């Protein structure tokens, strides 16, 4: 019998090989894909998220865990789709125009995937027009914007204004080193989070 506790532990350790093997074994035993996802993969990422918040692990460990989850997800995803398992929500995320930093954004995208969201990653240097176009095309419920430079923070304000002017109803959350809750309030964002694990909690509360 495939051991989902061992699967979540493999994710926590970032052990890709074991994570993939247990996922395959669980599928071969006709275990429900949603059970594998929640009790194996998401359970593991939740532990990493909690430890990250408490500074017990750091970005490298989170990235290694997320990579193990990604490998297991590649095997599991077709089964989830076939079983009609719906993601908890759809989130679109990108680094704003003029900013090419992506570690924070990638971390949030991975953590959101780890929490069961469908994630559309728009990459870096995303213009206000592109946010609007993609928001309309994907129907994302959450739009995440990241900026690491104080000089690119105004691009957040422009992008939020463009989305609101275009009548996009999605909830907008922002983050990045120079960003604060006060700034989020000032530019009309729906939320701000200081780290990737908190961003997941925020996204869940916004939908």
- How do the strands line up in the largest sheet? 2-1-3-4-5
Give the number of helices: 9
What name is given to the CATH topology of the largest domain?
Rossmann fold
Oligomer: single chain
Shape: globular
Let me know the number of strands: 5
Annotation keywords:
207 residues, Methyltransferase, Methionine Synthase (B12-binding Domains), Chain A, domain 1, Rossmann fold, five-stranded parallel beta sheet, globular
3D structure, described in words:
By secondary structure, the chain is α/β, with parallel strands linked by helices. The longest helix is centred in the middle third of the chain and has 24 residues, at 59-82. The protein has 2 domains: 4-82, Methionine synthase domain (Methyltransferase, Methionine Synthase (B12-binding Domains), Chain A, domain 1), CATH 1.10.1240; 90-206, 3-Layer(aba) Sandwich (Rossmann fold). The protein has 9 helices and 5 strands. It has helices at 4-13, 16-28, 33-53, 59-82, 103-114, 128-138, 153-165, 181-187, 196-206; strands spanning 90-95, 118-121, 142-146, 171-175, 191-192. Strands 2-1-3-4-5 form a 5-stranded parallel sheet, sandwiched between helices. Helix 1 runs parallel beside helix 3 (33-53), helix 1 packs antiparallel against helix 4 (59-82) and helix 6 (128-138) packs across helix 7.
Lay out the secondary structure.
Layout: H1 4-13, H2 16-28, H3 33-53, H4 59-82, E1 90-95, H5 103-114, E2 118-121, H6 128-138, E3 142-146, H7 153-165, E4 171-175, H8 181-187, E5 191-192, H9 196-206
Parallel strand pairs: 1-2, 1-3, 3-4, 4-5
Helix pairs in contact: 1-2, 1-3, 1-4, 2-4, 3-4, 4-5, 5-9, 6-7
């Amino acid at each position: 019998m495939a051991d989902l506790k061992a699967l979540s532990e493999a994710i926590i350790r970032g052990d890709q090989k074991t994570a993939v093997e247990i996922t395959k074994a669980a599928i071969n035993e006709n275990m429900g894909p949603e059970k594998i996802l929640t009790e194996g993969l998401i359970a593991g990422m939740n532990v990493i998220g909690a430890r990250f918040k408490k500074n017990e692990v750091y970005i490298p460990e989170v990235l290694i865990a997320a990579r193990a989850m990604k490998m297991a997800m590649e095997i599991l995803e077709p089964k989830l789709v076939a079983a009609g398992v719906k993601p908890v929500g759809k989130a679109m995320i990108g680094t704003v125009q003029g900013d090419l930093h992506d570690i924070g954004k990638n971390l949030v995208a991975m953590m959101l995937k780890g929490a069961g969201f469908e994630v559309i990653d728009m990459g870096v240097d995303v213009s206000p027009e592109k946010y609007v176009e993609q928001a309309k095309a994907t129907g994302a419920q959450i739009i995440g914007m990241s900026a690491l430079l104080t000089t690119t923070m105004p691009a957040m304000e422009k992008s939020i204004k463009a989305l609101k002017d275009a009548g996009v109803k999605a909830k907008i959350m922002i983050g990045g080193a120079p960003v604060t809750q006060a700034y989020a309030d000032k530019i009309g964002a729906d939320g701000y989070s200081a780290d990737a694990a908190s961003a997941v909690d925020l996204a869940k509360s916004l939908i």
